[in-house]
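User: Hello, beginner here. Can you help me understand these amino acid letters and fold codes? It all follows right here:
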Amino acid sequence: MHPRIEDYALIGDQQTAALVSADGSVDWLCLPRFDSAACFAKLLGDEDNGHWRIAPVGAGRCTRRAYRPDTLVLDTEWETADGAVRVTDFMPQRDRAPDLVRVVEGLRGEVTVHSALRLRFDYGSIVPWVRRSDGHRVAVAGPDSAWLRSEPEVHSWGQDFGTHAEFTVAEGEKVAFVLTWHPSHEPRPPLIDPYESLEHSVEDWRAWAAHCRYDGPHRDAVVRSLITLKALTYRPTGGIVAATTSLPEEPGGVRNWDYRFCWLRDSTLTLGALLSAGYLEEAEAWRDWLLRAVAGNPADLQIMYGLAGERRLPESELPWLPGFAGSSPVRIGNDAVNQLQLDVYGEVMDSLSLARLAGMRPQPQMWELQCALMDFLATAWRQPDEGLWEVRGGRRQFVHSKVMTWVAADRAVRTLEDHPELGGDLDGWRALREEVHREVCEKGYDPERNTFTQSYGSAELDAALLLIPRVGFLPPDDPRVVGTVDAIGEELTRDGLIRRYSTEGPPVDGLPGGEGTFLVCSFWYADALGATGRTKEARELFERLVGLANDVGLLAEEYDPVAGRQLGNFPQAFSHIGLVNTALALYGDEGAG
């Protein structure tokens, strides 16, 4: 039986991440970066596409598992007829090379444990050549090399193009395995001490988590979400990846996308979550990544970039991988990078305005860049675009995109009003703000149904309209806002959770099949309920959403309330950003530290 998406836990070193199943198998790992080719790709295929399982002989799913409090160190335990054993998985912050450490510890009795390692470079397509060297197993193929060692050393052998080991641990005994990657043309990196690295990892994560200012209800869930965002941050640049790759929005369907990149759409919400929770250093790193990524001709602004701001992210398919639960095609790269999404201009302007208001150290080129973005947007805002959800069914005049154009103009005006010494086209930006507002209220609003719509002249709704009061386009008590929140609650709800938009009838996104409810949209709905005075409903929904996290507190992109399963890429930064921001919105006064 194929694992469920919620069966996985995340470990990482803030440059890459691995997904570990509840049966003790590492089924996904890209080395050396989040967006590198995977050396374990069982997640999207089978064992022959690469994995590393450590578990008691004959055992299946673990008895229990949990992160050590306020860390990204994962403990997985099995109770067997012979005793109990724990496997602790983590990736220490790297010096030169990435290390995956797995410590096996006997808890009770004597338990025989089996390790099966199948390295498959280039997304599960290449079987490496494996040899012994100084007590290590060394795997090499093309540019990739990986070294496996155990401490103390245990007997290992090659079988079925994999490396196996079997050993017995009694109570208090430990065996540590370390898998280290490096470029094959370079010498082996210095060895780490796995036990010292474990102590340091626990200490480092707990010290970081202690900075969280939130102390309200569900603090554990908020801290877990912040740790997840930190784990998805590429430490060398400050960029935050959206998620992993090609996990389906519908089992067996084609809606499978590569999310190992950094989206501008996440910028304001991410920045707000980090600042409100007390993480100024991470917020500044994200702001600085943003400035570097978008530098250049405003007409060339992309909706997403690579970890270091790379712009070419060509989409291709991997036909040798059957996909998670048979969901194909498996895609790497993302063609949405070439789309026009005008809302990102508003998100960039809003982010930089928020950074200035938060007192971040100024960057000299920031205002010049903002002025250039506004010069472009002054005429480009009238174009149809693909919108926030990256539809592939043709461009439209999406209301959310126009609202975010208003946000861009509004933030430019407010900045110049507060800092007239900066200089800029204040009258022109005020006029633009008024014109966009007037047009959206005329063309994007349905007076008969008392709701804003997905695009001009359409009857469809869009969960992104829930952000209208949040960004300040209209106040929460405006009847048009209340009507929009009510309409979305009636028409986009599935078992109390919110879909992005309707997938019945001709699909706006140009894709067959359906999808689950979108978790971040459900958090937005809770925010909107709270803002419009329905606090009890908002908090009840938030309680339910927190309860949808898996056993280690992680959320995917979507949720199927009928099957009771998580769907889409996992863990999803946007979902965890939603959790943090909603907690702060609903419990801000009582949760402020």
Q: What stands out?
A: The chain is about 30% helix and 25% strand. The mean pLDDT is 94.
